[in-house]
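Researcher: Quick one. two chains, 414 residues in total.
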Amino acid sequence: MDTSIPPPVLCVQCDALYRRPLLHEDEEANCPRCGAALLSSTTPSFTRSIWLLVASMALYLLAAWLPMISVTSHGLRRDVTVWKAMTALWRETWGVVPLFVTAFSFLLPLIQAGLTAWVFAFAWLHKPAPGRLAIRRWMQWLRPWLMMDVMLAAMVLAAVRLTSEALVDLRASIWLLVLACMGFGASSRHSIDGMAPRAHVRVSVPGRRP
Amino acid sequence: MSAAMTGQAQGVVACLACGETVTVGACDASVCPHCGSPVRTWWTATAEPSWFLYLGGVLSLGLSCYQPAFAFKSTDRLHFPMTFFDAMVELFQQGSWEFSAVILLATFVVPTFRVLALGGLLWADDFGMQTWRLERTLLLRTMRALGRWTFLDVFAVAALAAACSFGAPLSLSVGPGLWLYCLSSVLMHAAAVSFDVRRIWASS
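Model:
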């Protein structure tokens, strides 16, 4: 008979201390006091997460290469790609604006995707990723500052605003960016949750016995 | 599952890196035995960093209202440098009420709500308010979720400035009002993120 007492669990939002509940498959416990998530027995699918990340990266690269919008004025049509837009932003504006826009909408999401890929690559090799807990901290710290979705909404807004001045077409690339953005968000969430030792999570790697 | 007591009363604290419960004992700092991350007691920390970020955000937001955010120059008409308020009024007069509404929401309504709500939370923390804890927690969560969307205007102007250099018959120059607003959004978001939600539930 196992007489060991499971360690208590502390709500990270309201500091309430609870006896660790026994969870069944696909159950999660929430704090009755503040409603925050305490524990989860849901097993995120590693295979699904890694393919989601690979697909998102492929979509992002494709979207960065293809034009996002086309601006036609005086019979002249010009295609705008992500890279061209970024270089134009640095050329046309100054101060903290291009710095924050580049950091929040492109650089930090890419760092997040890179860290997720690092963790997944080692998980694929059945090894713990070096610095995985530090990475988890960085990913948690980065999460409030990822604004690719806000940037996409702003791009659509700007394109619609320009329609009174020029003929503007939204190209397929912008929808690829929307999909890539959703994929990055979902895969990074899986990797953060999967790295939490307190969650009763077993990462199921294909070909590996539990 | 019942809430018998709090971590503060028992001298234990949650490791924010791995989520495990760590006993800190008499000292204020410890090391998580599960992951080796440094763990600090939240109840001995102060809310001063959040206050400084908040005050910086309020100051830059106030200044941004009086500085020109951008200036449009098109082939048929010349626009003088305009603040966000001028832009909102002009767009409304031109019939673009949807853009006017977006500027009203993202530049005035949400930041004003954030200034009042975060100020209220910090004030309540300073005075050790013991009531409306769940409501204040929900308010902080809402502010953290809304905070990212106050960058919508900054990003839209930046996207317009970039698009204008690709053959559109107008040019857009960015003024100090925009980067002050951008700075204010960053500082206010950082203030909301840095405020420890557990302080709302502190027993004293």
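The beta strands of chain A are 9-10, 16-18, 28-30, 37-40, 69-73, 76-80, 167-170.
Researcher: Thanks, that's what I needed.
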